[in-house]
Amino acid sequence: ISISKALFIEGGIYTPGLSIYLSDLFIFPLLALWLLNRKVINKEKIYWSKLHLYPTLFLIWMWLSMAQSEDKLAAFFICVNYTKYFLIFIFLADYIQSKKHIRLIMYAFALGICAHFLLAFVELLTGGGISIQGTNNTTLGTRLVFENAGGVHAFRPSGLMGHPNALADFMVFILPTLLMLILLGKNLLGRFVWYVAGSLFLISVITLILTLSRAGWISY
After folding, report:
1. Which element (helix H / strand E) includes 219?
2. Which helix (H) or strand (E) holds 7?
3. Distance between CA atoms of residues 13 and 81, nearest Å
4. By Cβ atoms counted within 10 A, which residue in 12, 122, 174, 205 is the most buried?
């Protein structure tokens, strides 16, 4: 959910600078408590596997490539963002140790999908973006006119992601997981969970279609 407050603005739309997001208000205290519990109280090692090598190398490459950037300040902010994502990855890989944790994550994703779908539906009904403090929705590329179809207009909803393409990105990310749950079948998941997964899959596909994001469709 892209609700944010800009701290530094640099680089334009695709490198918007440095912002603090709604999720940061929860993740940073959680990271601090996790480190305190792991390293100070229990003095335990943080989980590390061979798979950690790939995001580590990617992060190093990001910081090294900053020196080659035309806009070094914008590149620095991007590196700071990716470092945050890397720390979250390290935390999740260490913290998630039970089926209960996985269930909680799936519940959170389900609520997120519903929130995006409901807001996208309201946007379509009203014919425009819904202004929510901190969403920073852009109007660039959200209204399409098809000249070959007699000037038909189409509005592209953004949900809570700020832009239709970003909403499509989220749907492309979550749809394979929902499809995997559906393919597991009712016997393994249980009828209720299977029907919920199927319903979420359906509204996610509808949302992806409504974004009119060609790149999103192709990626999916």
Report:
1. helix 214-219
2. strand 4-8
3. 15
4. 174
